[in-house]
UniProtKB/TrEMBL annotation:
<feature type="compositionally biased region" description="Acidic residues">
    <location>
        <begin position="116"/>
        <end position="143"/>
    </location>
</feature>
<dbReference type="GO" id="GO:0003950">
    <property type="term" value="F:NAD+ poly-ADP-ribosyltransferase activity"/>
</dbReference>
<keyword id="KW-0520">NAD</keyword>
<keyword id="KW-0808">Transferase</keyword>
<keyword id="KW-0548">Nucleotidyltransferase</keyword>
<dbReference type="Pfam" id="PF00179">
    <property type="entry name" value="UQ_con"/>
</dbReference>
<dbReference type="Pfam" id="PF00644">
    <property type="entry name" value="PARP"/>
</dbReference>
<feature type="region of interest" description="Disordered">
    <location>
        <begin position="981"/>
        <end position="1013"/>
    </location>
</feature>
<feature type="region of interest" description="Disordered">
    <location>
        <begin position="103"/>
        <end position="169"/>
    </location>
</feature>
<feature type="compositionally biased region" description="Polar residues">
    <location>
        <begin position="105"/>
        <end position="114"/>
    </location>
</feature>
<dbReference type="InterPro" id="IPR051838">
    <property type="entry name" value="ARTD_PARP"/>
</dbReference>
<dbReference type="InterPro" id="IPR012317">
    <property type="entry name" value="Poly(ADP-ribose)pol_cat_dom"/>
</dbReference>
<dbReference type="GO" id="GO:0016779">
    <property type="term" value="F:nucleotidyltransferase activity"/>
</dbReference>
<dbReference type="InterPro" id="IPR016135">
    <property type="entry name" value="UBQ-conjugating_enzyme/RWD"/>
</dbReference>
<feature type="region of interest" description="Disordered">
    <location>
        <begin position="615"/>
        <end position="642"/>
    </location>
</feature>
<feature type="domain" description="UBC core">
    <location>
        <begin position="1034"/>
        <end position="1203"/>
    </location>
</feature>
<keyword id="KW-0328">Glycosyltransferase</keyword>
């Protein structure tokens, strides 16, 4: 790890680095910082501070910031520190040696600091190119006020040196960039380009994309992964320090955020715009993954471009940025395949490549040939296996990304190891390591449960119900261990701690007496009363009026905010309240709103339970989080008389959720699961809560007073561990019913589309159809029934026959039947028949999830099977199929016990023609009609089409969606040969004093793409800050380099793509820049306001302090005035015109930032529509004044807790008066 390497090197240096004039070498106050005292004769000690701005780049591509905060620093030491290079890439001991030698050289006139004449590297300090530029004899920075872009200094240090000495290198980089992109294009991918990578530019983007339709992903996987065939899968690669080829990267200290950064996503265009590319690598504020929640996907008519997030976007991005380069190193050095390199990496975790002769031969094994055959060549092709002298990094990155996208179910989403599972899955998940499961759930790698709850509430209800029934019957094969779930003590989980545990080797789990308990699996060690952990209880007075617990004087504090507790409902025998600790002011504890587990109202509960939300006093929480009428499980407590004294308050005995789920025995874990599920509100209540939040953060984590962390973690596990694709066909409210996908002949049953198996399972099924004995009807459909408690395992693991639940009288295989009633006999019924408990009077409902809207009693699947009964294990009386690739699940039907709701029947417009000898019979004894949509699109030509014209229209719509978008001119130009390349670099002229560079002329912006006209701004009309009177050598040199580089980018990037403009004629002082932001996206309200008001640009002023780049610049808008936050405006512009961005404060600033990236992020902030879009102030166009900008910026910093830069505090203290506006 980078931080560990830095700490190790620093520790070594503290121990071994010895110089007579250096003392007190130690670690600094912050990560990446170190300090030491440097002594010279007669000058005392100077405290030197050295900082690594980005420890993630250590050791390799990092740099150091070297400075001092000491007072009365000797001039020679001060000058040496100012002129010091950044010691790029050196480890701590080597850097220290170089810094001290530099100081010794500068102070060599002192008696105690002689020049070391025996130093083998006496000129080492002058080898740094940046230092050579800074030491130019004309580079006198004492008078910054007279500097201008036209002065000789503008070219002497950077521009002319670069172009005179590096022109061949620039041509070589251009040629390599083109070759790499051509190789990607020749491999079948589309390429795109943004920025200034050509001609020595340092920041730009390359996109590699491919249609989803070309990847061979089945329709079922596309649905499960929320992808569309017409979309492009895009790999966006950002080069931060200029284009770097693969061989250069392999020889550098690559880290995921240094020279190359990678993002993946989807889009309806083959490339994203420049603003969208920048936004993909920029985070203006913390956005939870639930903020991506949408109620419905946009229709084709309302498509928008942009890099949409992929369902495995975060794990895939982490994999590409952290492992791609190390894996390529292994592959090249060892001739591994992708699989071998990944296995070697996981086994060795980045160790040195030694002992190759002793390594396991498994690393050279070929990848699964079956996978190679079932996937298209664009997914399986390996560019590195072509044995070329030069390989394209963009192409290799795309091939590696596709490997993990298309085959995502084969890899753990956290550690990226191969998942060793005994079943196939349609959705990706994690491996069996507990740490991976914990990170998957806690770090947000899993699916958005909020999205599923809003878009598919019945599916979530179905999954919870399946898990609940399995837990009640002790049938869960996998349990949510490793998630740090904290639950009540086992005796409370069982119902009530005063209910005696069963004796004589029983499980210790009590059951109500009105139905017999299902037998639990045997535990490794039977739980007896002696082994059951003692229940910890605590006593306190309970004030239900104020929702407070009051402890006695001198009692020990046992509760902390966020704890969950449970205590008996007063005057109730079995019911208990559950609530969250909202605040602790010991001896008083403030509670959240309590609720009762389970739906049944105990008749012994006090009927005076009428506490309303308005009567509930909250502590440190948003009152809006209080839920309206939730579920029957939200019964408030009895009222305490208002005038009750503490002595008159009733005393309760409570216990804490302090039992780790992992420490329970398996039977107790099953009980804990259905206990926690009973505390959840209904899915409809959760959906209503999420949608009521509107534009706020939509996450169930915020419903702190209603859902415990353990219950929420369990809910996430249930949804995330579903490896099938289940899509609602019916809805109880009738809003999302899809009649064309509904099977006819089964009224009263709720229907779901149901798919299982690996992403290539459909392709293997299609391949297996060649075994069909009837080519006219290659497949048949048949029923598969199973008890309700088995379905949680089926949706996780798929259909298999590893365990026999009902015997195997007709051989090993998956059992099917053409008769609905036959399969139903294996499904049973929770009620008056089958395996049900009770007498049909509703007592069976104790085994159902109490909050379920569906109230499921039975479930049955309809599967498609290869029509080859002669090759089945048995074809009579049941269809027993042993070949799992011959079976594809298509539908799931559930019987819902809902009153007043009828699920009618409907006939699909297009039906799949079935073999009359093998037609499934429905519940009524008549053949069912299966819609054509039940089979994959590639096989629908075998269907009997009732409406030919309708089918043609569907085909035309599909073809229209796949029409390729045009390639941009700049993307065509970058593929041109070097001979066709226009020479846009500055040319050299002889002015009699030697050759100097002539600035390239600004190209006229394309009027069709922007209405901005450069060079028309009149600076005399602008209210500017007073010109700075300060200047430091280090800041001046840094700003000279920044301005030179920024103007160079401006010269080479089209104005409409760049979006900002700096007029060099207006930069009279490097500490004060005037920038115009223009060409905003036309759909933004800001762009519309500017267009209607005749405003061509937003004029901003950037003021740099004397401590730059250690201190951020001050950025403010001059004109036009924006609509303030209080008036409904946005865009991160304060009422005084200052930019409200943490990036521009000491809290968020990085000394490694460059001004080009600052301008891009400022422009992006103005374009942001969250929480509201930027708008112009109504009325005449006016300017912001200087004083109000300073005041507004300081107020914004104070409001957000950001640290105001010292430069602003000291320089503009007289302008920072108080004001009520923000």
């Amino acid at each position: 790890m980078p931080r560990k390497a830095f700490v190790a090197d620093l520790t070594d240096a503290v121990t071994t680095f010895t110089r007579y004039n250096v003392s007190n070498l130690r670690a600094g106050e912050e990560d990446g910082m170190l300090n030491f005292a440097y002594h010279i004769d007669g000058g005392g000690a100077t405290e030197v501070t050295i900082l690594v701005p980005d420890l993630g780049e250590y050791p390799g591509s990092h740099m150091y910031m070297i400075y001092t905060n000491s007072e009365n620093v000797p001039p020679k030491v001060h000058s040496a520190l100012e002129a010091m290079s950044n010691c790029h890439g050196l480890k701590v001991p080597d850097m220290l040696l170089k810094v001290v030698k530099s100081l010794d050289k500068s102070t060599s006139g002192s008696q105690n600091n002689p020049v070391d004449l025996d130093d083998p590297e006496p000129m080492e300090l002058d080898s740094d190119p940046e230092l050579e530029q800074s030491d130019d004899q004309e580079d006198d920075d004492s008078d910054a006020g007279g500097w201008s872009p036209k002065s000789p200094k503008h070219h002497s240090s950077a521009t002319s040196t670069y172009h005179r000495g590096k022109r061949p290198e620039v041509k070589a980089v251009n040629a390599r960039l083109r070759r790499d992109l051509r190789m990607a294009k020749d491999a079948g991918f589309r390429v795109g380009y943004h920025g200034s990578l050509l001609n020595g530019g340092r920041d730009g983007f390359v996109t590699i994309s491919c249609r989803i339709a070309k990847l061979g992903i089945s329709d079922e996987a596309l649905q499960a992964w929320h992808l569309e065939p017409s979309q492009y899968f895009i790999l966006l690669i950002r080069y931060v320090e200029g284009y770097m080829s693969l061989d250069r990267l392999l020889g550098s200290g690559f880290s995921h955020d240094s020279q190359v950064q990678i993002r993946s996503g989807v889009s309806h265009t083959y490339k994203v715009s420049l603003d969208e590319a920048i936004a993909s690598f920029t985070t203006l504020e913390d956005k939870s993954k639930s903020s991506r929640l949408v109620a419905q996907r946009k229709s084709d008519e309302t498509r928008v471009s942009g890099l949409g997030r992929l369902f495995i976007g975060r794990p895939l991005d982490d994999l590409l940025n952290e492992r791609l380069i190390p894996l390529l190193r292994y592959r090249i050095a060892m001739s591994f395949s992708w699989g071998g390199a990944e296995e070697f990496f996981n086994d060795h975790q980045g160790r040195n490549l030694t002992g190759a002769d002793e390594m396991d031969s498994k690393y050279w094994a070929e990848d699964d040939l079956q996978r190679q055959i079932s996937l298209p060549s664009i997914v399986t092709r390996d560019h590195l296996a072509d044995k070329r002298k030069e390989c394209s990094l963009p192409l290799l990155a795309m091939q590696f990304a596709l490997r993990h996208l298309v085959r995502c179910t084969e890899f753990c989403l956290v550690c990226h190891c191969k998942v060793e599972a005994d079943f196939e899955a349609l959705k990706p998940y994690v491996c069996s390591k507990p740490l991976c499961l914990y990170q998957y759930m806690s770090l947000g790698f899993g699916p958005s449960i909020e999205h599923e709850i809003i878009t598919q509430p019945h599916v979530v209800d179905l999954l919870i119900s399946f898990c609940y029934t399995s837990a009640r019957h002790y049938k869960l094969r996998y349990l949510p261990t490793g998630m740090a779930l904290m639950v009540p003590a086992p005796s409370i989980l069982a119902g009530s701690h005063n209910i005696a545990l069963q004796q004589n080797g029983s499980t210790g789990m009590p059951y109500p007496t009105h139905y017999p308990p299902p037998p639990p699996p045997p535990s490794k060690a039977p739980i007896t009363p002696e082994r059951t952990p003692a229940l910890k209880t605590f006593k306190a007075k309970f004030d239900s009026q104020r929702m407070e617990l009051i402890f006695g004087t001198g009692t020990t504090k046992v509760l902390n905010p966020g704890n969950w507790i449970t205590f008996p409902v007063p005057q109730s025998v079995r019911q208990r309240y559950h609530c969250r600790v909202a605040g602790v002011l010991h001896p008083t504890v403030i509670l959240g709103k309590p609720f009762v587990r389970g739906p049944k109202q105990d008749p012994k509960v006090d009927p005076r339970v009428t506490v309303s939300i308005s009567q509930h006093r909250s502590f440190g929480t948003n009152p809006q989080n209080a839920s309206p009428a939730l579920t029957p499980a939200a019964t408030p407590p009895p009222l305490t008389p208002k005038d009750a004294t503490p002595k008159e308050l009733p005393e309760i005995e409570f216990s804490i959720y302090d039992q780790n789920f992992d420490d329970l025995e398996d039977p107790e874990k099953h009980t804990a699961i259905h206990f926690l599920l009973d505390t959840l509100p209904s899915v409809q209540s959760m959906s209503d809560y999420l949608q009521s939040k509107g534009g706020q953060e939509m996450s169930l984590r915020s419903w702190t007073d209603r859902i415990s962390p353990a219950a929420l973690g369990l809910l996430r596990w249930i949804i995330a561990s579903d490896r099938s694709c289940i899509i609602q066909v019916d809805s109880l409210d009738g809003n999302t019913r899809k009649s064309e996908e509904r099977v006819s002949g089964l009224p009263g049953w709720m229907q779901f589309r149901f798919a299982q198996g690996a992403p290539d399972k459909e392709q293997r099924f299609v391949t297996s159809i060649k075994h069909a004995t009837n080519p006219n009807y290659p497949t048949m459909f048949a029923w598969h029934g199973s008890p309700l408690w088995n379905w949680h395992g089926i949706v996780r693991e798929g259909l298999h026959f590893e365990k026999a639940a009902h015997g195997r009288a007709f051989g090993d295989g998956v059992y099917h039947s053409l008769q609905f009633q036959t399969s139903m006999s294996y499904s049973g019924y929770i009620g008056s028949r089958g395996y049900g408990y009770g007498s049909g009077d509703g007592s069976h409902r104790s085994l159902e999830w109490a909050q379920s809207q569906l109230n499921i009693s039975q479930a049955i699947a309809l599967n498609e099977i290869v029509n080859a009964p002669s090759q089945f294990v048995s074809s009579s009386p049941h269809l027993v199929v042993a070949q799992l690739d011959w079976i594809q699940s298509r539908y799931l039907f559930v019987k819902c016990n809902t009153s007043g709701i009828s699920l009618g029947d409907s006939t699909p417009g297009q039906a799949y023609e079935q073999d009359k000898s093998y037609t499934p019979i429905g519940e009524s004894g008549k053949p069912i009609v299966i819609p054509i949509t039940a089979v994959s699109k590639c096989r629908r030509k075998t269907a009997k089409v009732g409406d030919k014209r309708k089918a043609e229209n569907v085909q035309e719509q599909g073809e229209a969606a796949m029409v390729s978008d045009d390639t941009d001119d700049e993307d065509l130009a970058i593929l041109c040969s070097d001979d066709e390349e226009p020479d846009v670099l500055p040319t050299m002229t002889d002015n009699g004093k030697g050759k100097t560079a002539v600035e390239p002329q600004h190209t006229k912006p394309d009027a069709s793409k922007t209405d901005f006209i450069p060079g028309t701004l009149d600076q005399k009309t602008l209210p500017l800050l007073e010109p700075p009177s300060y200047a430091t050598s280090s800041a001046t040199k840094a700003l000279q380099r920044e301005l030179t580089a920024t103007l160079k980018v401006q010269d080479m990037v089209p104005a409409d793509q760049l979006g900002w403009y700096i007029d060099g004629e207006l930069v009279n002082n490097v500490y004060q820049w005037i920038v115009e932001l223009h060409s905003f996206e036309s759909h933004l309200p800001l762009a519309k306001d500017m267009r209607s008001r005749g405003v061509k640009s937003v004029v901003i002023e950037i003021r740099f302090g004397k401590d730059y780049p250690m201190s951020p610049p001050f950025v403010r808008v001059i004109r036009p005035r924006f609509l303030g936050f209080q008036a409904g405006g946005g865009g991160h512009v304060t009422a005084g015109g200052a930019l409200c961005m943490e990036l521009l404060t000491n809290s968020g600033w990085s000394a490694a930032s460059n001004i080009e990236s600052v301008l891009l992020q400022v422009r992006l902030a103005m374009s942001s529509t969250d929480p509201r879009p930027a708008r112009l102030e109504p009325g005449p166009i006016k300017d912001y004044q200087v004083g109000e900008a300073i005041q507004a910026f300081i107020r914004a910093c104070n409001a957000h807790g950001w640290q105001v830069p010292e430069d602003i505090k000291s320089t503009y203290s007289g302008l920072s008066g108080s004001s009520s506006r923000y």
